[in-house]
Amino acid sequence: MLRARVRGFPGDGLTPERIHHYFVPRLFAEVATADMIDDVLACGRTLKPDLVLFETYAFAGPLVAELLGVPAVHHAIGAMLEREVLELANDAVSPLWRSFGVSAPGFAGVYRGITLAICPPALDVLDVPEGERLPLRPAPLPQLPPAVTGRPLVYLTLGTSFNTNLDIFRAVINGLANEPVDVLVTVGADQDPAALGPLPANTRAERFVPQATVLPTCAAVVHHAGSGTMFGALAHGLPQVVIPQGADNFVNASLLERAGIGSSLRPGAVSPENVRAAVRRVLDEPSHRVAARRAAAEIAAMPSADDVAATLRQRFGDGGGGSTTSERQTEP
Fold first, then answer.
1. In a domain, 147, yes or no
2. For the chain, does the N or the C end have fewer beta carbons within 10 angstroms?
3. Cα 169 versus chain centre, distance
4. Helices 60-68 & 33-47 angle (0-180, nearest 10)
């Protein structure tokens, strides 16, 4: 929809630092919220929940909670968004809130109640501007003990959304071809490993491997800076080389660099030579491994999903969360 409106790829020409400022208010707040609200509200009226749990970009969540008269709980899916981004999102959703006879409460309603924050302290930059913050472990604890033996294993993945550019895969593979490491590449279920062409002797390519079984055997991870891969690697205490592509990738890349956990190669800088230098750096300089293990310890100390769910049940399971403005003033 945005592509049709702007006659091209949305966000073209933006600097990485402005991606959230463009996409969050336009795509997620204005377009997606209007598309979601009726179905989500109908579902809520059928289920009669004790609370509404929503992720950062699901701006229909806090509005539906307001209209149902139940608490809303915000589940962060990465780092906290900049204050300005959510102020712009609040402007974008305000007409929709008014159409239901209520006023947008600021920050698009995201921070009115509890925020489940998933960044470990090593990566935390921003705090919630209002409401309550509860930590939540962002990734499962390692299921297997570290099993790095022989040559270091470097794991390369570009996730499932930004995995179509084979030139990036090839740049990493070629950069590490003559290094004293083994390389495992996953191209995604929708890609064919054979499309990469002949592989060096130290490289194996698959569509998919379970990260829980691979990460304990790794010495470093090269990836696109998606939150799932980033937090999974952090939980295992692994240094990272990130090649951000879009969405939250650039924010995550900055967090990792700031924490001393990894190196980042921005668009235009991805070459075999630069990849080789970045991977050597995170493998050879102990500070990256030390910082990654510190983050892993912080993640291990955060409450699990079961613990947080128990806390939410204690607070809201009896339906005693109270009423909101809409319940007291209007029936939509």
1. no
2. N
3. 21
4. 40
Q: Give residue 70's domain range.
A: 2-138+304-329
Q: What DSSP element (H or E) covers 114?
A: strand 114-117
Q: What tens digit of pLDDT does each residue of 160-184 get?
A: 888 889 999 999 999 999 999 999 9
CA angle 25, 29, 32 (to 5 degrees): 130
CA distance 110 to 58: 9
Instruction: Give the number of other CB atoms < 10 A from CB of residue 267.
Output: 12
Is the Cβ–Cβ distance between 167 and 187 less than 8 Å? no
Whole-number Å distance between alpha carbons of 134 and 136: 7
Query: What pLDDT does residue 8 have?
Result: 60
Q: What's residue 11's pLDDT?
A: 63
CA distance 180 to 157: 19
The set of residues, in sequence order, having a beta carbon less than 8 Å from that of 115 and lying 6+ positions away, is: 73, 74, 76, 80, 128, 131, 132, 133, 134
Identify the CATH number of the domain in which residue 284 sits. 3.40.50.2000
Nearest to 229 by CA among 238, 106, 270, 268: 238
Residues with pLDDT less than 50, the chain:
320-332
The CA–CA distances, whole Å, from 148 to 70, 80, 191, 215, 216 equal: 49, 34, 28, 10, 7
| Residues 258 and 183 placed together within one structural domain of the fold | yes
Q: Is residue 321 part of a domain?
A: yes
Q: How far, CA to CA in Å, does 116 sit from each of 13, 305, 325?
A: 33, 10, 23
Residue 141, CB-side half-sphere exposure with 13 Å CA sphere: 11
Q: Would you state the pLDDT for residue 324?
A: 45
Based on the domain organization, do 125 and 23 belong to the same domain?
yes
